[in-house]
Amino acid sequence: MDGTMTMSRRSLLILGGAGLGALTLGLAGCTGEGTPTFGGVTSDAKESPMLAERVKAGTLPKLEERLPSAPMIVKPVSGPGAFGGTLQRAQTSATDAGIVQAFAAAGLIEWTLKADGAQPSIAEEYRRSEDNREYRFTIRKGLKWSDGEPFTADDVLFAIQNWLGDTRLVPAPPVWFADVGQTLPTVAKDGEDTVVITFREPFALFEKYMCHPAVSTQIIKPKHYLAAFHPDYTDQATVDAAAKAAGFDSWDQYFGDRDNPWTNPERPVMGAFLVTRPANAQSGTAELERNPFYWKTDPDGRQLPYVDRIQVQVLDQSALDLRAANGDLDFQGTFVGYNSSQVFLRNAEQKGFSLLRWQSVGSLLALCPNLSHKDEAIRALMLNADFRTALSFAIDREEINKTLLGGLGIVRQPSATENSPYDVGGGGTAIEYDPDRANRLLDGLGLARSGDTRSTADGRPLEFTVIYVDDNAGIARSDALQIVAKHWAAVGVRVNLRPVDATLYAQLRSTNDFDFDGTTVIEDDWDLEPVWYIPTSSGSHSAPAFGMWYATNGADGIAPPEEIKQLMDLWDELRTAPDDDTRIAAGKKIMAQHDEKVYMIGLMKLPFAPVIVSKDLRNVRDDQPPLSFYYGREGITKTEQVSFASPA
After folding, report:
1. How far apart are CA 24 and CA 621, in angstroms?
2. What would the pLDDT profile of 124-139 be if each residue is shown by its tens digit?
3. DSSP labels for 126-164?
């Protein structure tokens, strides 16, 4: 999308059916007069009966008073839906707020249905400059928060200036909002309704970040509510006293708690659903309810969402998969265990659900050697491409594939796929099983073998530890890594496996205290999370100390060698590209370097992501879209227009 881009209300109709393949789930249609029908029952109601009852009771304003002057129109994937029903879901963690991104995200702009670009959302009009420096968002008139208070440009300015711009709350600007020198861009209002964000240098990825549901929602904050917890608007003593009374050590902790829509039902939202009952230690079930002030409608002017409520149970993996297999979950891809797919298939017809095969994203299991290792001798070894390549040749991936995935897994190295503009046809370097070649490469590095184990040049046994968080939802990590350990032992490299919890895992990585990281790696959209392929922070999985050096401009961490600096320079070129051609060219160079150097050692990925869909559910796309964090997971099907054929 080169050049100046402008989108207005004329381009707000989301294309539902075009190019999506055979969508067989939609049974709803329209009468000849344009009145929606559902299973033969005609209805011209513009709002859910549960809201109409509140209007009648005088506890809720009329629909025309709740909608903006120009609602966003969403064309259902397969046809208009019926109001009502409770959507059943589950997840394995009470703290995971992914359902908010999947079913209740709200940003200034959002992905198109095809997720191939941006379209206006809360902003009725959106424009970016030709050089990717200035971004203008004109807010829809008449928008309201879920509590009925007006949403204005001041809410966006509050989020940027009083949250992102307050170092007490956000010590440093995040990568998705950082200008040159890790500073904030300028933000201002142009008139009453337009927000203008200006970067000193081009920010080629800002549009993608603003479409990312987990990012875009972060600059949508209710000033009228949160100001009561912020000392820039409320007396410091009052704010401190409120924080202490709520059991917090400081006001900034309390502010973060009040700003969390997943755990705080009082916090107003702009998404399709609001939490009415959070999941916590006392409750293993969360409940969400439709937002009565939601600002999207279908083409017939009927307020979305169609579904009234969502219920989310917190279960362990086996219990979640059992519920899915019993047909107790209505729409679930995230958290569903791939290894239960055969059970799902056997049960689907009898239990009244379908098993869709969406694209599996972020399931590529890999080993990330610590290129910035604390030990200089080990660091030099990890940085040697022959060493990494030898370890890759030493792995019999087909054994892992046949043992764990019945031969259906996709064997490849981490690299952008054909779905990405950064694709260079990579992913196939050193993936064949060739232990003889592995031994020759290791011999050539002077890693002498005595008995079963090789030694480093200074006589130490060649022995490493792999840290990882165990996970059986996809490829069973412990099982896969045990097979790798056997293969590496055969060429004289001893491996210890160390499963750890998520907190210790993050600590060991950020402090540069590990040899290998066993983790799943993303392939496409890595530009939204560059630490996977370029060490830009201590969050890097393969070179955290180099990442610290980059993030602090050399003030901390370990200075990387020239080849890693080259990756960093290419990343800077990509991020500040004035046009898409320059951005894509830089991204392809990064991928080509990874393909040549094998900085991460890939094993295999899942062939698909299982998605459970109730036979009674309508408007779920079946064209195999990516089940991706970057697109809101299930939200890529525009979940506000999902509906039941026969709402209970």
Report:
1. 9
2. 999 999 999 999 999 9
3. EEE-TTS-EEEEEEPTT-B-TTSPBP-HHHHHHHIIIII
